Automatic annotation (TrEMBL):
Compartment list: Cytoplasm
Cofactor(s) named in the record: Zn(2+)
Record-annotated Alpha-carbonic anhydrase domain positions: 1-267
General function of this protein: Reversible hydration of carbon dioxide.
Domain of life: Eukaryota
Phylogenetic placement of the source organism: Eukaryota, Metazoa, Chordata, Craniata, Vertebrata
Organism: Bos taurus (Bovine)
Record-given protein name: Carbonic anhydrase
Classification via InterPro entries: CA_dom, CA_dom_sf, Carbonic_anhydrase_a-class, Carbonic_anhydrase_a-class_CS
Entry similarity comment: Belongs to the alpha-carbonic anhydrase family.
Parts forming coiled coils: none
Keyword Acetylation: yes
Amino acid sequence: MSHSLTPVMLAAPKWPHAQAKSWQCTPEMKLSKEVMVMRPEQCSLGSAGLYLRGVLHPNELLESKAPILRCGIDSILQSKERREPMLRGGPLAAPYRLRQFHLHWGSSDDHGSEHSVDGVKYAAELHLVHWNSKYNSYATALKHADGIAVVGVFLKIGREKGEFQLLLDALDKIKTKGKEAPFNNFNPSCLFPACRDYWTYHGSFTTPPCEECIVWLLLKEPITVSSDQIAKLRTLYSSAENEPPVPLVRNWRPPQPIKGRIVKASFK
């Protein structure tokens, strides 16, 4: 069975998603000629010539002192130490270090993901942001076309997921913008589905200047969470504690045109 996946670009906190239609992106780096010249019909997933061999291998240990839980427009956890968990395999030529992960969700359960599959949107989308370990820092990696790898996991409504609840229970400590709290002994790989099949394409960040530095890896199989668990995300605020309360009920950007990008799959 073939699928179609609509690519998007990763969001950054300082750009309000309610104004997404007015954003103007001027990429600092261009996609390679090989990517830009491909015709749109070559992006039909599952068709001949787009099968990509390779298995993703996320590190299964998050150092106990590394993570900080932070409330922002989309950022949930960020590692501040050098011993970040690593991502290997698939289309990645080098190991990538986990920088942070965050979630995108909508005002209701029928939308919230920043990618769609066969036109279907999911209730939320988890992004695990990694940077290429061949560069000496995250900031340096941002300047290179192979600098960043983002693993995307779709969240669909169904049974409650216990591992996801561990994260949600900690949100009470960071209800408003700028709040931080330690978040120890959490294994991010517990948020991966059992099946590691994925789609991949070269893309960019959501917001200006939309640097073309991301290898996107979208896992085919969603994880299941309950409606109550997604509702917990909407209890956060995009406003600071001393500001008028602004509930964070929408932090996703609608899918963008594919613009010649090649989307490959690790499965047939």
